[in-house]
Specification:
Blueprint: E1 5-8, E2 11-14, E3 27-30, E4 36-39, H1 45-57, E5 63-67, H2 73-76, E6 86-90, H3 91-101, H4 107-116, H5 121-130, E7 144-146, E8 149-151, E9 157-160, E10 170-174, E11 179-183, H6 202-208, E12 215-218, E13 224-225, H7 226-234
Parallel strand pairs: 4-5, 5-6, 6-7, 11-12
Antiparallel strand pairs: 1-2, 2-3, 3-4, 8-9, 9-10, 10-11, 12-13
Helix pairs in contact: 4-5
Pfam family, one: Lactamase_B
InterPro entries: Metallo-B-lactamas, NDM-1-like, RibonucZ/Hydroxyglut_hydro
Keywords: Hydrolase
Length: about 240
Amino acid sequence: MVEFHHLAGRVWLCPGDDDPELVQAGVALIADERGSILVDAGQSPSHAREIQAALHAIDLPAPRWLVYTHHHWDHVWGACAWPGVEIVGHVTGAELLRAEAARPWSIPYLRAEVLRNRRLGPSFRARALAVDSWDELTVLPPTWIFTDELELPTGVRVRHVGGRHAPDSTVVVVPDSGVMLLGDSWYPPPLHLRTPTDEPDLALVGRLLDDEIGWYVSSHSPPLTLAEARAALDG
């Protein structure tokens, strides 16, 4: 069931599905009466609509901004179902998404690409399961583009960290709530690009830890407290 849970301060989390074959990322809402910030869009228009229903169910303020943590499909394909939001993303992701938007997404296209490169199979099967109608899917690049760091009008900070998972990986910091949203920044590269030696980038997480931040949230993992994150790094 798609639903939001309060984490801390004005940060609410909507976890993704934990079935790895579905490749469904979680999203976050930073609630603010001046206009909320949605972090990632959902993996498809139908997933986005489920997220919208979950927001409505607990009467959270509608998002005014949508921040992409990176350009991968399970974080951005729902954006076309969020009318009226301004999309914030890194300049590298904007370039990549313009190329993605030009692809003829459809079941025949997915099949042809998997036949060309079998390693795309898990990701492309998940896309086929996620999208109810290819006619309603439009891949949207960000409209508000940044390079290094950006502070949004509600005091939320967006910072490019890069890494091997995606060149545009971005973290979102909510200082007044003591929360950092990590996206997939420390994960190894996607399966079709991964090598046997690729591992999670724990050094990246270590550089991000901050005594002023009490919660660290990844898109496909449960939230960790600062103490839990330090223990995981030490282990």
